[in-house]
Specification:
Radius of gyration of chain B: 29 Å
Strand content of chain A: under 5%
Helix content of chain A: over 70%
Shape of chain B: elongated
Number of strands of chain B: 5
Oligomer: heterodimer
Strand content of chain B: 15-25%
Largest interface: A-B, 14 and 16 residues
Shape of chain A: globular
Number of helices of chain B: 4
Order of helices and strands of chain A: HHHHHHHHHHHHHH
Strand order of the largest sheet of chain B: 2-3-5
Number of helices of chain A: 14
Radius of gyration of chain A: 21 Å
Order of helices and strands of chain B: HEHEEHEEH
Chain lengths: ~350, ~150
């Protein structure tokens, strides 16, 4: 949201005009942006959970949710209302402040990262010049929250899930960052708008296919999605770090998971698939199409592959992904210097 | 030489794994547009197989258009859970005894099938009823004679 362009129109609007003048451009953008983000996070999660269940159903030759609304469209809404009505149980031996804080903290990175995401040239709350870095630094907070939740629950499954999560997310953050860096040194900027502008002629996936693959694998692992869903492995750890969470607290973990999915997809789109650029359709539509195509891919992968064993997971990160990402970064640097 | 071969093997393993992953993805995406195979239960219902064991019921015979139960009570006696109750009556002195009331408390039945095996008139069989959710224990008590009347 560019305040200068929109500011001229804003003052003339009947209802929003006085609010805009009272708050000033910066605060106004922050407030409106936050409201839009909060709304979008909810709708995105509701839609994605429905899509996930539908895709899972059809892959397994069953229809998925069908009862509430046409083709089960309102099923997630009904589930949300049910979760809101549930009792918030705190285990007796839990570390109460930490237990209370964890679901709130996991939601912060999910919200903050949306600030940077460029939905379209205008629809971006803040175009920071350290955009990518901010996403990486804030999203690593979610590990803290998972660890807090797992530790504070005072439950063996939660603790094992949290320990796995920390090891996994730290391991996969390295290839994720390295693969991003090879894009960054190609366009010399951390700024989302400049990264997208650099892909005007050709998408970066053409120059950086290996980096893109590594990024997508790392992003799947970062969001704790199958086949890297060891922190919440249902069949071995009940529900992993959120075993003890009920009601809206559990819903917050769930909401954060689907928001993180969207954020990583949006990052992949910005870094490798040309952002909001595309012919004919408006930029917002292009961005959404690309994002949800990637998210569909992630869901598709989840319902295809079995979960990795923990040593396989670690070996894959340290023995394959990190060397490949380093090599890719090196080659990129050498080629850029030579050209 | 040794290390170069292990490295070659390592790369081959990665390529083979990547190929198998793509094949797996192809298999699942092919399933997506296919027809649904699950039965949408409340709207679609299956009839059970002949071998299915529901609660017992009386067979309708063609010769008298009804059951052949003589109320001998063998089924009630052999039942290990004592869930069967049979009553019969004799209309005339020259007549055979005929079963008029037959109850089975299906909530305690263990489906051993001894009643079906022992029946001298071979008038008992297993029904193919599978919607056996009840709101009270009394609903689990099946009136077999009534069932036979209603099934006409």
């Amino acid at each position: 949201m560019n305040s200068n362009i929109q500011g001229i129109q804003m003052k003339d609007l009947p209802l929003i005009g006085p609010v805009y003048q009272f708050l000033g451009p910066d605060v106004f953008v922050a407030v409106v942006g936050l409201l839009l983000i909060l709304g979008f996070v909810q709708i995105n999660a509701l839609a994605l959970i429905w899509v996930e269940r539908k895709v899972a159903g059809h892959i397994q030759l069953r229809p998925g949710p069908m009862e509430v609304g046409p083709h089960g469209l309102l099923q997630t809404l009904a589930d949300g209302i049910k979760l809101m009505g549930k009792e918030l149980i705190t285990p007796q031996m839990a570390d109460k402040p930490l237990y209370w804080l964890a679901p709130i903290i996991i939601f912060i990175p999910a919200l903050v990262c949306f600030v940077i995401i460029p939905f379209s040239p205008l629809l971006q709350v803040r175009d920071l010049n350290v955009g990518i870095l901010l996403i990486f630094s804030v999203s690593s907070l979610s590990v803290l929250s998972i660890l807090m939740g797992g530790w504070a629950s005072n439950n063996k499954y939660s603790l094992i899930g949290a320990a796995r999560s920390v090891a996994q997310i730290i391991a996969y953050e390295i290839p994720l960052l390295l693969s991003t860096m090879s894009v960054i040194i190609m366009c010399n900027s951390f700024k989302m708008s400049e990264i997208i502008a650099a892909q005007k002629p050709v998408w970066f996936i053409v120059f950086q296919p290996i980096a893109a693959i590594i990024f997508l694998i790392g992003a799947t692992a970062e969001t704790n999605r199958a086949p890297f869903d060891l922190p919440e492995a249902e069949s071995e750890l009940v529900a992993g770090f959120h075993t003890e969470y009920t009601g809206m607290r559990f819903a917050l973990f769930f909401l954060a998971e689907y928001s993180n999915m969207f954020i990583t997809a949006a990052m992949a789109v910005t870094l490798f698939f040309g952002g909001w650029q595309g012919p004919l359709l408006p930029p917002l539509v292009w961005f959404m199409i690309k994002c949800y195509t990637l998210i569909f891919g992630v869901i598709w992968v989840r319902w295809t592959f079995p979960r990795l064993r923990f040593d396989q997971l670690m070996n894959f990160a340290w023995k394959i992904l990190i060397p490949a990402a380093l090599l890719n970064l090196l080659i990129t640097a050498v080629v850029l210097k030579a050209v | 030489m040794e290390s170069s071969q292990t490295f070659k093997k390592f790369i081959q393993e990665i390529l083979f794994g990547a190929k198998s992953l793509v094949i797996g993805l192809w298999i699942t995406i092919k399933r997506m547009p296919q027809r649904i195979v699950t039965v949408q239960y409340p709207r679609q219902k299956l009839t059970m197989f002949p071998n299915f064991r529901g609660h017992i019921e009386a067979i309708r015979f063609a010769d008298n258009g009804s059951h052949h139960c003589v109320a001998c009570g063998l089924c009630a006696r052999i039942c290990p859970s004592h869930v069967i109750k049979v009553q019969g009556e004799k209309r005339k002195a020259s007549d055979h005894k005929r079963g008029t009331l037959y109850y089975i408390d299906f909530t305690k039945c263990s489906l051993c099938g001894l009643c079906v095996d022992i029946c001298p008139e071979k008038t008992l069989t297993f029904s193919r009823e599978y919607e056996l959710a009840y709101r009270s224990r009394w609903e689990g008590v099946v009136d077999i004679m009534k069932r036979l009347e209603e099934s006409k």
